[in-house]
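Box 3.1 A note on notation
Throughout this textbook, protein chains are presented in two layers. The first layer is the amino acid sequence; the second is a token string describing backbone geometry. Keep the layers aligned when reading.
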Amino acid sequence: MAKAKGRPKKDRPAPPKRKPREKQGYLDPSLAPVTIAEVEALAKSFVASRDAWQRMGLTMQDASSQLLAEMLTRHLTEYEYDGKLIKVEQLTKVKVNKIKGETKADSNGDTDE
């Protein structure tokens, strides 16, 4: 192992975050880009939906990791739930597939007898 050089680091609080810079105005108003209200409204809704999708992705990752942890603590590699088969793959990934070959009559418990 290499020796650490210099003095040991002290526990210091994190430096305060900088405020975001304000946008610089245009020197000549005629050089400002053209703004179209309809396009800006659609762009704003797109950005909002994209951000919501990204947040949902994070919650899906959290749910997946919690499911994986619970299945590993119970020593399960497969689990059947609501017509779906949940498998643990590579001890780091959970995969959910529909069960093939099941019909509506099978899932309701009805028989053709």
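The longest strand covers residues 84-89. Residues 37-104 form one domain.
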